[in-house]
C-alpha cells in the first residue's frame, strides 16, 4: 500500500487501538462468540444493533479502520493523477480501472485484516507443522539452501518473491498448511436477494455459513488421505494448483477456487508462511521443535 503504519513502534495508533477493540478482551470475546452463535439462527443485522459493549466498540473500531482506508485510497488516487502512482497493490488496482474507490476501500479493509491476523496465524501453523514433521523440515532446509544465496555473500545476491516462488517443495508445503489449517475456519455470508443453491431455495437475508475447516478436509473432495498432512499431493503432475482436488471449490481457505484465488487476503496468506521458513532455513543451523511449558506446547 506504499505506507508504513508503524505498528511495532506506535502500538497506540488509532489503527492499532481499533484492531484491539475488534479482537477484544476475554469478556468481549465471550459476548462476541455468543452473538455469532445466535446469528446462526437470527438475522445478523438485528443482533449487531443490540446495545452491548462488544457491538458498540466493534462498530466504532470498524469506522476508524474504514476512515484510514479512505484516506489511503484518496492519497493513492492523488498520486496516480500526479505522476502515475507507484507499484504497490493499491496503486496498481486503482490504475487498472477495475476497482472503484469504494470497492478499493473494502479490499483494503480485507488486506489490513489479513496483515493483522491471517498472516500471523498462517505463519504460526507453518512453524508448528515443521516441528511435527522433522523430515519435512530437513527437506525444506535442503531445498532452500540449495536454491538461495548464502547470508555470507555480503548481500551481493538478492532474494525476490519470484525466486522463492520457484521452490516446489516450499510451495507445496505452504499450500498444504493453508489447506489443512485455514486461518479463517468459518465465515458467514448473507443472501442479498432470493436465489437457489444446488436446487435449494435461499430467501433474501438467509445466513449462509462457509466452513473451510470442513470442506478443505472432505474425503469426497480430497480422497481418503484428506485428513493427512501431505505436501506431495501438490507436487503430482498437473496438480500444482489444486493438490489433486476434484473441484475448484474443494479449497476454501480463500473462500473461492484453487490457489491462488480472488480473495485479497490470499496475497498476504500465500506470502506469510513462506517468509519465516525461508529466514529460519538460511540463518539457523539448528532444528525447531516443540517443548512443553506450564502444560502447554510452545515452539
Helical/strand content category:
mainly alpha
Order of helices and strands: HHHHHHHHHEEEEHHHHEE
The N- and C-terminal alpha carbons lie at a distance of: 32 Å
**What is the approximate shape?**
globular
Strand content: 5-15%
Low-confidence stretches: 257-262
Strand order of the largest sheet: 1-4
Quantity of strands, as a count: 6
Helix content: 40-55%
State mean pLDDT (0 to 100 scale): 78
Radius of gyration over C-alpha positions, nearest whole angstrom: 21 Å
Helices, by number, come to: 13
Q: Tell me about the biggest sheet?
A: 2 strands, antiparallel
Describe this protein's structure.
This protein has 13 helices and 6 strands. The chain has helices at 14-23, 26-38, 44-47, 53-83, 89-96, 101-132, 134-147, 161-164, 168-180, 212-215, 219-222, 265-272, 274-283, and strands at 187-190, 195-197, 200-202, 207-210, 291-293, 296-298. It has a two-stranded antiparallel ribbon. Strands 2-3 form a two-stranded antiparallel sheet. Helix 4 (53-83) packs across helix 6, helix 6 crosses helix 9 and helix 7 crosses helix 13 (274-283). The radius of gyration is 21 Å and the shape is globular. The model is unreliable at 257-262 (pLDDT under 50).
